[in-house]
């Protein structure tokens, strides 16, 4: 069930246009919520419920998205308390990524120190995982720590794909290759994140 949910999310996220994503994400959220309710003691459905909430937040207003990401954060923290190793530490990857992508106080909970702590924990659980290495590299690039990022991008590129290679793995590998090429050519990899863009005017709205 989790594998099907993951596959459907990856197809929506990587292959479908925004109009179709707006229709599909709520359906995927309902499926994830149903799984979480059916298996209340399992961390995995909560991780995927939070992941889909995060991607769906891009289609919400700034204030609604702030509340959505707070809820996703709470789900990920609950999943970590239940089983920190679930999905090879995926909750740490997603939560760590949120910590450096979203704005800090007073707009949201962004915190670079916590981001690094979470992402390093994910690497301790799954040191050869493509997700853990790619997103820690992305964090380092965001912090202008380019020299440190290179080795993690290389590890992400060389990371073994899962037994049934998912679209997400393949796309992350491509993203890692692109980021490494830009870094080696002296160009700034990445740029303003979608969550930073989403909340660019949130401070004004919350005053």
Helix vs. strand class: mainly alpha
Mean pLDDT over all positions: 89
Q: Helical percent range? A: over 70%
Q: What is the helix tally?
A: 11
State the end-to-end distance: 43 Å
Report the count of strand segments: 0
The percentage of residues in β strands lies in: under 5%
Q: Could you spell the SSE succession in H and E letters?
A: HHHHHHHHHHH
Overall, the morphology is globular
- Taking pLDDT < 50 over at least 5 consecutive residues as the criterion, the unreliable ranges are 190-207
Note the main sheet: none
Explain what this protein looks like in three dimensions.
This protein is mainly α and 207 residues long. It has 11 helices and no strands. It is globular and about 45 Å long. The termini are far apart. The relative contact order is 0.11.
Features:
207 residues; mainly alpha; globular; disordered C terminus
In brief:
The chain has helices at 2-15, 18-38, 43-56, 62-82, 90-101, 112-125, 130-142, 146-158, 167-184, 194-198, 202-205.
């Amino acid at each position: 069930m989790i594998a099907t949910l993951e596959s459907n999310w990856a197809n929506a996220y990587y292959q479908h246009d925004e109009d179709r994503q707006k229709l599909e994400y709520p359906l995927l959220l309902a499926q994830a919520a149903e799984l979480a309710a059916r298996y209340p003691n399992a961390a995995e459905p909560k991780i995927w419920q939070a992941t889909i909430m995060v991607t769906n937040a891009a289609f919400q207003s700034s204030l609604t998205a702030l509340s959505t990401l707070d809820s996703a954060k709470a789900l990920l923290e609950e999943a970590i308390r239940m089983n920190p190793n679930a999905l090879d530490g995926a909750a740490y990857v997603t939560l760590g990524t949120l910590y450096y992508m979203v704005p800090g106080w007073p707009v949201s909970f962004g915190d670079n120190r916590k981001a690094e702590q979470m992402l390093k924990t994910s690497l301790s659980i799954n040191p050869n995982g493509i997700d853990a290495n790619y997103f820690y590299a992305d964090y380092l690039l965001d912090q202008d720590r380019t020299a440190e990022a290179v080795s993690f991008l290389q590890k992400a590129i060389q990371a073994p794909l899962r037994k049934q290679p998912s679209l997400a793995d393949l796309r992350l590998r491509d993203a890692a290759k692109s980021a490494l090429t830009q870094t080696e050519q002296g160009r700034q990899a990445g740029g303003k994140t979608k969550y930073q863009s989403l909340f660019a005017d949130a401070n004004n709205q919350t005053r």
